[in-house]
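Ticket #4471: structure export looks truncated?
Reporter: QA, pipeline team
Priority: medium

Steps to reproduce: submit the single chain below to the structure queue and open the exported record.
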Amino acid sequence: MERLTNKAWRNLDPWECCGQDNYCKRGCHDDGGCNKGCIVPKIYDELAVYEDAEEHGRLFVLPCKVGDTIYYIKTLQNGADTKVIVQDTVKRIILDGIYNQIVISNGHAFMMCDFNRLLFLSREEAEKALEGMK
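Actual output as written to the record:
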């Protein structure tokens, strides 16, 4: 991702990162300026934290979120090892640095590395993977 924040701006007057000084009616140019409740510097600082984490390799982008509908490939133990696609919902995401897991509503947990291999965001992706397994 292209960096949108400028580290040199962090100790300057906060309105400098906003660029809306011709439109803002919050008194940016008054004493105390943007420090009187403008959310732009807060948003800017929060974005900078994410960009810093990404820069140092500490930002982890999740493949899904709690509440998402997911599809997974399940092998039925019926003697023929039939594979079917099952729809479920993400109940929890566990990030412990070792066993990063996606837990679905039936209690089954998938390893994060199973995403796009056994676990998918769309039925179409799951069907395509299932075809590739035949």
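Status: closed, not a bug. The export was complete when the record was re-opened. Leaving a note from the reviewer for reference: The chain is about 25% helix and 20% strand.
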